[in-house]
Amino acid sequence: MARIAGINIPDKKRIEIALTYIYGIGKARSNLILSALGIDKNIKVKDISEKQLNDIKNYIDKNFKIEGDLKREVLSNIKRLKEISSYRGIRHTRGLPVRGQRTKTNSRTVRGNVRKTMGSGRAKAAQKT
Question: C-alpha angle with apex 47: 1 to 33, nearest 5 degrees?
Fold first, then answer.
């Protein structure tokens, strides 16, 4: 298995898809990396040369924030929103949807799967004799 940014990427997948296993790299960014380096996106990871693999590693390290650094940045942004008591920060604190989704009917799992309809909490009827 090839190892990029501390992540083992699968050998049997195309390089375009395999790069998406790294946190912070999606399909669009994967295509951008491969086109910048002139690597065919349909090559399997097991068929890629060591030089190409090192080029990908160096390009990612120089140009993108990925994995631990990116996760730390996202967490610090959320922490900042909570500290300044913005609307989004309050929603994060309460564990509710942040981006304007409705909460009356959706986000049941976030709210603890509370069901307030009449038949939802009732015990099953006894079997017919």
Answer: 85
User: What is the number of other CB atoms lying within 10 angstroms of the CB of residue 20?
Assistant: 16
CB 10 within 8 A of CB 1: yes
Q: Which of 57, 24, 21 is nearest to 39 (CA)?
A: 57
pLDDT in tens, 12-57: 999 999 999 999 999 999 999 999 999 999 999 999 999 999 999 9
- The neighbouring-strand residues paired with 2 are 9
SS3 of 41-99: the string is CCCEHHHCCHHHHHHHHHHHHHHCCCHHHHHHHHHHHHHHHHHCCCHHHHHHHHCCCCC
CATH number listed for the domain at residues 66-100: 4.10.910.10
Give 55-64 pLDDT, tens digit per residue.
999 999 999 9
- Name the class of domain 2-64: mainly alpha
Distance CA 36, CA 30 (A): 10
